[in-house]
User: What shape does this take?
Amino acid sequence: MFIGIDIGGSSIKGVLTDTTGRVHAFTSLPTGKTAHGIDTDIGGMCRLLAERAGVDFTGVRGIGIGTAGSIDRDRGLIFTSPNIPCLKNHQLTKSISAVTGKPVFIENDATVAVMGELWAGHGREYRDWIMLTLGTGIGGGLVINGAVYTGTKGSSMEVGHTTIDYKGLKCPCGNTGCLELYASATALVRYAGAQLKRYPLSSLKARTRTGALSSKMIYEEALKKDELALHALHRTGEYLGIGLANFVNLFNPQAVILGGGLSRAHKFILPIVKKTVRARVLKGFANDLKYLPIKDEERAPALGAAKVAIDVLHG
Ligand SMILES: [Zn+2]
Assistant: This one.
């Protein structure tokens, strides 16, 4: 048995799995505020997973952890994690090993999400595919010939920071006109907010009187055919299609797997994305291209993290 942990900005998720990818137990809890608190929580979570699955903790062979931020895999160190500042310069593998007595391995959060989908999701049906996660930013993953491509430092496919408008908005990353400034959930909310004045009859305008505009709100109003909500989602789909057309031309994938909060609005976005990609890629590249959602978004990163430990310890 192996444990996979996915440390996110708002929650920590854990799975207990065997070497086939079957989930024997799953649990999650809110992310703690201190490094020590997080270590203790993960230690408790590991024991709880074993207990829930009815297995003796001594039968757990190893723990894999996926975490956001920049990491040093070999030293098991988190340098910085923008969404979890308390983990700055934290020796994660050493501390979790100390509280569990197990070998611990860490990996980048984007990589474990791709590994989970490749191992136990739709990714197993395709040889060459890319993943896009549409949330606060836009993340990416790449599988070439059945293997995750991670780049030299373990963080390839920073698709959110590829340029789609060279004279466009300034990005905190230092670049100009980055895709995620136009096609993420954050970008959608920013754009719709800026357009409220031009759409005085929009139901979004009424809703902003009682709460801050959100991508969920825009999706809900689009379902009711609000003109601004539909327009903002259409625009998001167009930009996303432009970005994706670049990746399709680069990698000629069999499938594009989509995740992240904004992918829930696929009903509105996906038809535009497909149309834009088809119009922009080289002939033939879009013909058999499949678009799929991540199979089990909640568990995929934790499963992928477990796979990291399995690959090292089980071969
Ligand atoms: Zn950027």
Summary: The pocket of zinc ion is lined by residues 161, 171, 173, 175, 178 (CB under 6 Å). The chain is about 40% helix and 20% strand. Residues 3 and 16 are 5 Å apart (CA to CA).
